[in-house]
Amino acid sequence: MSARKLAMIGFRSLLVVFFGLVAADAWLDLGHPRWWNYLPLALAFVLAVAANRPGRTPEGQPGHPEPLEVEPPVTGRWSALNSPANRTPSHGTHAYGQTYAIDLVAEPEPGARPGFRALWPPARRNTDFPAFGAPLHAVADGTVVHAEDRQRDHRGRTSLPGLLYLMLVESTVREMAGARRIVGNHLVLDLGDGTHALYAHLHRGSLAVAEGDRVRAGQVLARCGNSGNSTEPHVHFQLMDGPDPDTARGLPFRWRNIGVPGNGEVVEVPAPAARPA
Length: 277
Hints:
The chain contains four helices and 13 strands. It has 277 residues and is an alpha+beta fold. The chain has two domains: 3-51; 68-274, Glucose Permease (Domain IIA) (Distorted Sandwich), CATH 2.70.70. Helix 1 (3-28) runs antiparallel to helix 2 (39-51). It starts with a helix and ends in an 8-residue tail after the last strand.
């Protein structure tokens, strides 16, 4: 087991100890200074920082390796969010191999996707979002090395109460439970040469492939869902240098004929059969 994996296990264990100490002190009055309860939290933070340092180039120096050109994972009209074209790490952290990750939301026409509401409704049905159930395609020829689709799709958290609940309650619980609960239903493709593609937040029960399957670029793999640490049905896509998000480093990518769309940029992706070879 790698040092990075051990650090992530230690990080989650210390979070559990912290919440356990806080609960025990509140109910039993342990008698020690209250600040002692926060020692595991401080140590957890140190481990998280150590485990999630940015990646390095093949020469061993900090920097950005050359992006790999692959096909887009979707077809139709989509808008980009949390794009590495705007900043890296794109999601504010190097954790879980998502330094260059990108999110996509389906917008088949302007206004088709529900907007953010301050208070009401606190949560929305997934079927209100055009991304829900959209097919996801293989970005290159590869082998399925991990596939999971048994976690539930929760409702969209596109309101202030829903977002706070997701960030303060659900996210904390999922962080302690491990990477698979963060990414939700997900699929990992081995593209060769140490490169792996991860598709996160898949629709429950939508996998069209299984571990060990060889797939071709453009092949339908699964469908877009809202599982894991997700505010609404969307596609979370990233390249990384290993199959385990806990230990992998993020790798940059470019989508053929598109590049990397920036935040808010709308892209039209043709069906796989219409793409140039």
